[in-house]
Amino acid sequence: MTRTTPRRTALISGASIAGPALAYWLNRYGFAVTVVEKAGALRDGGYPIDVRGTALAVVRRMGILPRLRDAHIDLRRLTFLDGDGGEVASVDPHALTGGVAGQDVEVRRGDLTDALHTAVRDDVEFLFNDSIARLDQSGHGVDVTFHGGATRTFDMVFGADGLHSRTREFLFGPEERFHRYLGYCFAGFTMSNTFGLSHEAVLWNTPGRAAALYAVGDNDEVHAFLNFARPEQPFDAFRNPRAQRALVAEVFADAGWEVPGMLAAMNDADDLFFDAVSQIRLPRWSSGRVALVGDAAYAPSFLTGQGSSLALVGAYMLAASVADRDHEAGFAAYERDTRAFVTLNQDQVGEGDAALFPTTAQALEQRNDMLRGLGGAMPAAAGRPAHSALTLPATRPR
Ligand SMILES: Cc1cc2nc3c(=O)[nH]c(=O)nc-3n(C[C@H](O)[C@H](O)[C@H](O)COP(=O)(O)OP(=O)(O)OC[C@H]3O[C@@H](n4cnc5c(N)ncnc54)[C@H](O)[C@@H]3O)c2cc1C
What we know:
This is FAD-dependent oxidoreductase. By secondary structure, the protein is an alpha/beta fold. The protein has helices spanning 18-28, 54-61, 65-70, 93-97, 109-120, 166-172, 235-238, 241-251, 259-268, 295-298, 307-323, 327-346, 361-374; strands spanning 9-13, 32-37, 48-51, 77-81, 87-91, 105-108, 125-128, 132-136, 142-146, 151-154, 156-159, 179-192, 200-206, 209-215, 221-229, 273-280, 286-287, 290-292.
């Protein structure tokens, strides 16, 4: 059949998880898609992430599930330590995350991004090293001015630019209004695996402080996390890497176990990632011809372990919603059909109540008693209903 109308055009800001997934589905629905990413290339590497429940159906429909299964990390053991480094319990990690062994996949973040990009890169225009400087919706489309100097007009624009989204700021103003701080800050970085860890994680806790080492394979690097409770957000530290290192060093100054070595490694790390643990809660996910997806719209925080899954499901639902509708009806359908799933997953954690990071001595003792009671013999997990609480509509690709 010959096409009688021109293809609708879409610009997506952000090429991580939500961005390439949305690009894939919009392209399948006949859009001409451009993705702009401020980094110079895909950002690879990174911490392990889970793809679970409904999100598994998304990657299966994209044809990348076999590749993700090949990249599966297969974490076999999670060992909890007390303040002196003594073992509290060693458990099957799936039982705690609510994951389902044999079904869920856990991969390095970079492996997921790469698989998504590979699935779409030949059909979609990618602009690296650039970003949106201005959005103007006063005409018949969205007039976009790029920082690189180009100006172009698109039928729709999508913000898939993460927790600190610029696109969201263009639409709705500063992040503080929509940011729900969960009472923790964390630093993540890679360091040498001098611990002999393999396919396992070790978590050290004292009240309000946690240090974790995560070995994704048998290789010579581990992912290190230092997480701590803090009632107020340390705004100064967000803008200043030196202040971040100083704050983390101060909080963990008297900590035992391997923490002194982790602090030394943090000082030398070139991939230090520091942030508040927080969610984004927005009353609306779109304005005019511009919509948000993934962390930009509804970051659930890593405490839920559902950020990537929400990004994948959200991208699928958004593309399906505009496939046969204009932006107004399409964006309304996206929210109507996706919001309950998102909220249910965001509600899996509240302020300061993360089971992995108890903030008081009493809460930590209770958590440890619970773990000891399990004696390592965890029952097979049934999975959390929240992960699968949405059934995807059928695809109707052009
Ligand atoms: C330590 C840690 C552990 C985590 N563990 C898990 C887990 O186990 N399971 C899970 O599901 N999730 C986990 N997450 C969360 C998960 O990483 C995010 O929820 C997920 O990456 C969201 O994807 P996204 O594409 O929406 O945003 P992001 O991955 O944040 O990507 C945003 C992209 O936009 C780009 N960008 C930013 N600003 C601009 C701009 N102005 N113009 C153009 N491009 C821009 C960025 O460079 C980036 O490529 C974890 C997160 C962290 C930090």
